[in-house]
Amino acid sequence: MNTPNALPDVRVSQVFNAPIDKVWRAISTSEGLGAWFMPNDFAPVVGHEFHIDAGPFGRQRCLVKEIEPPSRIAFQWGTEWTITILLEDRGDDRTACTLVHAGWREDGMTEFNLPHAAVRERMGQGWVGIVAKLGAVVEA
Q1: CA 73 to chain centre
Q2: Which of 37, 8, 25, 62 is nearest to 133 (CA)?
C-alpha cells in the first residue's frame, strides 16, 4: 500500500493439502466462512453488503469488493480495512492461500477508539491462527 502514513499490510500464507475447489467453497460461502472465521450472512456477489459477528465487537459491516473464482475474493471490513484472500492451485490437491489485511494507518483509529497500530499487532498474530483454522477445515 502506498498511502501516506500507511502501516504494512498483514500478510499470512499457508499451503493446504486440499484441492482449490474445496478451499474456494470454504472462503466463498457463508457456511464455509462461518466454519473457520466468524458467523456471517455473506453472499458471493460483488456489491453485497454482509455482516460478520465479531463477538465482543458486535456485528461488523462488510462489503464484497471482488470475486474471481476460484482464485481471489476481497471484501471491505468496516470503513477502512480490506481483506483479500488469494488462492493458487499447486497441483496434487494442494492449494496455496494468502490472506492480506490492508488499510492500516499510522494515525488511524478504529470505530472502537483503538489505534490501528495496536490492533494491527494483535490482528497480525490472530490471522496466523485463523488461517491455520481454515487449513484444518479444508484438510479434514
Answers
A1: 9
A2: 37
Average pLDDT over residues 25-43: 98
Count CB-CB contacts under 10 A for residue 95: 24
| pLDDT confidence bin for 110, thresholds 50/70/90 | confident
Q: Which residues contact 37 (CB under 8 A, 6 or more apart)?
A: 52, 130, 134
CA angle 105, 111, 116 (to 5 degrees): 25
Give the model's confidence band at 63: pLDDT under 50 very low, under 70 low, under 90 confident, else very high.
Answer: very high
* C-alpha–C-alpha distance, residues 131 and 109, integer Å: 25
Nearest to 100 by CA among 130, 56, 78, 63: 130
